[in-house]
User: Fold this.
Amino acid sequence: MRTLPGYSPGMRTQVGIVGAGPAGLTLAHLLHLEGIESVILEDRSREYVEQRVRAGVLEQGTVDLLVAAGVGDRLRREGIVHGGIELRFGGQGHRIPMSDLTGGRAITIYGQQEVVKDLIAARLSYDGPLLFEVAEVAVHDLDTPRPSITYVHNGRRGELECDVIAGCDGFRGVCRDSIPPGVLQLHERVYPFGWLGILATVAPSTEELIYAYHERGFALHSLRSPKLSRLYLQVDPYEPIEDWPDERIWEELHRRFEREGWTLHEGPIIEKGITAMRSFVAEPMHYGSLYLAGDAAHVVPATGAKGLNVAVHDVKVLAEGLVEWYGSGATELLESYSDTCLRRVWRVQDFSNFMTTLLHRLDVDAFEDRLQRARLEYVCSSEAAARSLAENYVGLEKV
Ligand code: APR
Ligand code: PHB
Assistant:
């Protein structure tokens, strides 16, 4: 085994995984269950990845996969199952009975960082290699059957030789950019607004999620537990968070959720931040010995709550391909990995764009504004339209 100059003779594994987010950790666990070795390299600390507040809606398929993989006990205990959502506009609420419309499928509210905590605990319970706080990660020889990953850990340079590399390092990772120019086709849409998200230690004022369209902008009432509320406001993405003192946030939430006989309860805000809204897809999701998964290959606006779920679907497909390859040498599933994933990626891109343009205040002319209103009323009055929204929201069994 050759060693790159300046690097201590490296480790050898079957699958080198860059990134310990939901994609990388789920992949490592699925491979472990099939006796396939992997090493995860993560550049942040364990504390950081376990505390990073992100979304918190799990599709039926994601819950089923995590439970079947033996990492769903706490999810089942603490996750909150919802059979519907409310669309609110014009001071009225309209419930979309998703479970009734999809043969009983539902969503589960369970923070992304809780999923990450459970997967890290499982990984460490069987001493699965997981290096935190690695630096200078770089991937090499992607167009050979012996790719490698170099990195610095605890001040020492290391090299990990593997059969394949899974690029699960998110939107700002290094793996996607390591693919030679001209190979990838990149699709991007950046929305002219962002989301200001807060975490507040107050009991949620709602049993189910409320998606509110208001002429002052979109608002979302979500939750994390019976004591923890998660709320979002459509804001100017370039406005500094300092311009949003807590009082102003609550005042705006009250106005956008206004509905006769309904009250939003306030409480201490313990976390707040503004995130941009973008749609992004890199095609193909495979180059040589490198397979991209999750945010490394695609990003969706949060309105459809799809980011984590499509990342888990990617690695489910990748694990199946690797199991087939290591099991029989057959490469069909690996060769079709990118096409298989991109079918679902574009489905959720379309749904996330639909939800985003349905529910946000768009700077459009009066005609477009009326169309948006008509679309909202249609979704809330037509069972066929509501069923379409519901089946996409709880997660399509097949695409
Ligand atoms: N080297 C090692 N690790 C890296 C590097 C790097 N150069 N760059 C990024 N990482 C790590 C990040 O610190 C992060 O922990 O890769 C991980 C990528 O995880 P996520 O961004 O959570 O992406 P993914 O696992 O694909 O999950 C997608 O995450 O961002 C949410 O909304 C998104 O829900 C979606 C989900
Ligand atoms: C969340 O709970 O953080 C959440 C819920 C629904 C979304 C986005 C985020 O569409």
In short: DSSP finds twelve helices and 21 strands in the chain. The longest helix spans residues 337-359. The two ends are 42 Å apart (CA to CA).
